[in-house]
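Thread: Newbie trying to understand structure tokens

Hi all, I'm a second-year student working on a class project, and my supervisor (Dr. K.) asked me to get a predicted structure for one chain before our next meeting. I've only ever worked with sequences, so writing a 3D structure as a token string is new to me. If someone could post the tokens and maybe explain what I'm looking at, I'd be very grateful. Here's the chain:
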Amino acid sequence: MSTTIDRGAPASGKTDSGRRGSHAMRWWVLVVLGTAQLMVTLDATVVNIALPAAQHDLGFSDGSRQWVITGYALAFGSLLLLGGRLGDLFGRRTTFVTGLVGFAGASVVGGAAGSFEVLVWARVAQGLFAALLAPAALSLLSVTFTQPSERPKAFGVFSALSGAGAAVGLLLGGMLTEWTSWRWVMYVNVIFAGVALLGALLLLAKPAVTERPRIDIPGTLTVSAALFAIVYGFAHVESTSWTDPVSLGSLVGGVVLLAVFVWLESRVAHPLLPLRVILDRTRGGAFLAVFVLGMGMFSIFLFLTYYLEASIGYSPIEAGLAFLPMVAGIVASSTTAPSLLLPRLGPKLVITAGFLVSASGMALLARLALDSTYVAHIMPGMILLGLGIGAVMTTAFQGATAGVHHEDTGVASALINTSQQVGGSISTALLTTIASSATADYLSSHKPGALTAAQAGVEGYTATLAWGAGIFVIGAVLSALLIPNRALAPSEGEPVIAH
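---
Reply by user tm_fold:
Sure, no problem. This is what the structure looks like when written as tokens:
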């Protein structure tokens, strides 16, 4: 048996040798990567549903509760670029497996937590390992499916899981909390991670690292501090105000550090984020589209869940089930848009149209009232949202990794996750303020009473949904202006060891 280095499938369509070159094996690899991606995305919402039960069990205060969410977001958001670059330098298979093992271990610790402090640190550890896992999964997809005939289908399936994961997390969180215990929203990750780990060890080819890894230490420290400050600043805004000194200081400091990071990356020999990755118009426009999508999607999951449960009395499980038409829309458009629409219309038109369809769905939901019915008033908007989100997500994911050399796919993939995470942090803080203001304005101008209080809540939620529609319209305009309407080039295949 001899061992050779396989350079991977280039854009010309030449197939790999070895395991990953087998057509059947490539699609099994997609199953492995999709399982891991589903675990990471549903974990963003599955814990939210279980928080009240965890709070009652462990006895922590309302003021402390946000740290179960924020701890994960801070670690995940601030370390994503480093996690992506580590995959480029040391091998995506290695970082993927490390991320799976670490995420599962942190989930066990969190599920068994006997105190608030242990739960928070377990969430921080989950975020850390997710920062390794998420970029590795997307970059492995990018370097595995390099043939133009297969790439859209693979990205469509992956994007469907990414978009549906948060909604599935709401349903799964409600089911586990109601039928078992809040601890199972943590333990369930071990099942996903175990399946993905077994598949990774059996199917993923070992990378051939031909150059000695170098890490941009100044860039890493600067951008990690910048992203930490920005995510923390917006999280702090939610519990204080936009004029709070800590919030303002964190946000201003984060922006300044980002500017320093860009300056550093233009001058170092081995940058953490080579500027060539984002200066390409297709990739840059795709990253911006993912950022805007992250802003809009958070308003859906957060405030629409509040409306369903607080305003019209859905249980957590019923609220999760209510999102299933949106999940169906995401799956339908993610799996059909790449093969049916993208070759005929081009990325500019698909992303622009996707944003406008999503905006129309959000606008319908912004008209919800206390007496709205599900079939007539909620479901149509959900379906439109799903169709638009799926089209934007699958096209933007492809565009953000289009034409990327294998040594940059990890950091490009990390930037996708970073864009979505920062977009979500900004919109959560912004829309929380908008909801509070709309609620307060309604209460101050109407006679006090139970009905007034209930309607005030609806006014707050629908105000955020109206802003979400506006955010999607802005995304459509930016995409139309920035993204060129040309075919998306595939990524370069990764060199692997073939036996």
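A couple of things are worth pointing out once you decode it. The first strand starts at residue 4 and ends at 6. The CA atoms of residues 296 and 468 lie 5 Å apart. Feel free to ask follow-ups in this thread.
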